[in-house]
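[Structure tokenization] protein backbone as discrete codes
[Encoding] learned vocabulary of local backbone shapes
[Protein] chain in single-letter code, fold in tokens
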Amino acid sequence: MSEPPAGTDAGGRTLPFLAAQPVTLLRGVGARTAGSLADMGIESVLDLLTHYPRRYIDRTRQRSVAELAVGEEALVLATVRRVRSRRTRQGRALVELDVHDGTGTLRVSFFNQGWRARQLPEGSEALFFGKLGEFRGVHQLTNPVVDLVGSAGSRTGRIVPVYPSSEKAGVTSWDLVTWVEEALERAGRLADPLPAAWRDELGLADRTSAFTGIHRPESADAADEARRRLAFDELLRLQLEVVMRRHALERDARGIRHAVEPAFGAPDLVAEFVGRLPFGLTAAQRRAIDAIKADMAGSLPMHRLLQGDVGAGKTVVALAALLVAVQGGHQGALMAPTEVLAEQHHLSVHGLLEELTVPDPATLSGTRPLHVALLTNRTPAAERTRILGALATRGVDIVVGTHALLTEGVRFADLGAVVIDEQHRFGVEQRAALRAKGRDGEGEGADPDLLVMTATPIPRTAAMVVFGDLDMTVIDELPAGRAPVVTSWVRTPLEEEEAWQRVRAEVAAGHRAFVVCPLVEGSERVVAKSATEEFERLAAKVLPGLELGLLHGQMRSSDKEAVMARFRRGELGVLVATTVIEVGVDVSEATVMVVEDADRFGIAQLHQLRGRVGRSALPSWCYLLGEDVNPDAAQRLGALERSTDGFELADVDMDLRGAGTILGTRQKGRSDLKLASLKRRDRAAVEQARRVAEDLLRDDPLLERLPLLAEETRLFLGEEEAGYLFKS
């Protein structure tokens, strides 16, 4: 890496060059060590330099053992003086260390971690992090987090980085410090792809200072400034991707100019549909429909995200979009992630649209009923053949389905609009595959308008990254007359009995109740078996005398439909189900939800489940059963007990879990975010990165005037996506 013929420009080394240099170029990294580093995701010098410290030891202001107080979280840098291993009376392995830092001695205990004796022999230096306790007059840390540091050597009197290391692979934080310092020294000056004008306006450090500052900071402020610049780079690459994807879609698009206002004498399906609803639309729903109509009237295909909290009425808005397409002679498709949700949508759509008629092309002047079909992997073969034929000949106006709509045999005569529900379950490629159904095998035809919906609210900053190629509409109000759901976190047997008593009382009053079975790991068959066993237990011991129904994913479609129909009619008072009822199930008489082992579920899933009740003016309750829960689960359940606002809960969820699951919906990317966060800390940076991306691409859509930035963006995109976005 000393004198490369490539990989530099007038400004220094580039990240693609560093990505091409194997870590074996560094001193002390042989084949065996390289294998250990590869297990940690480190294969190149760039991987090493972007393996950032997770914390720092400030040896300029280091605290001592003597200063620590019982009850506080302590970060202790100490040397192991004594190691003892034994078994407790209960048979658990116990490793006890006496550690010393020059001011005092501390006991460190590890239960069921016998390997710690090998990891921390006498004389080793390590960083221990945990809550300081006291046992029999001795201060101690129990099962603390450990970072092997090594001898202080020449690194005293400075801020020392502590890296995520691998005890299993034998790679310590101290090893990484040594290799990173060599890599920085040999890399020298780094090229900076961000124009100086933007660096100055945003007050960002240059690239070289940033990498030096994150790994060898002279102060805490220097580390913060370095993190801010490198986090911005990560966000900018993501925003460049989504803005370029939007440009690529617009570049290749063949849109349909929908007649949002029907010709004289033609039926206005949207107006008829809205007029027949048994309730009035909210102002937010009307604004959403107006925005969708404006999109569909334009020459470019619509790409819009419809967000709304549970029960906000997104389905009605989506149907309006499909009807705009149908009244112009086109077809519509609604795709859902599960068969239960697709079946519920089909039932709802069929019921809402069953009295509408459309022009009959066979008679030219007559009309026929609007046809709605359901297509899933469980659709019988004969019915599937009939539906496929009808789709190809305009015999079906709107099809509701699952991933089955993406299969090769599904062809439309004239697909004009696509709605994808629960967008977080699908990725970019899947929605692109359904959108491509508007063209034939030769690529001829037009791109249908696309509306993606989610009832899992996403914080604005995350939405800007995940759905940056979509326009966003938020339905920010609930229909009038909805009673708030009273949520209780049930922690004792007495409180649990009160929950079951509420179920009995509500069923006796003619209302309905849901019981969600505990979340179990395993196949659908295992889940179904567990649900069946719980159904039998509840029927025999907890709710005897009540009519219970069972619903899980392994049941035949006809059986699921029969159970749901009986539940709606009130023949069943209690529906015992798995999470197949998470979304789409709308029974206005349902007033009680009981979620067993609620601590096993995430915030978004619990909020969705709670949304199955409270869908009318009737008082409603949700009971979250969880007696002995861990701290993270306690925060989740406490948040749900305090709030019914999905957007507020989404913020809490991202604070607890990070953005990994949200970013996972993108289904691509070398490494999305290592330093940057979509949480509150970096929200301003997300918006700044979007502004910079739009400015840079406005007159230079392929970044031809910024070759360094283009090369770096390609590196992090991957070959296939880069080829698509950078094609001329």
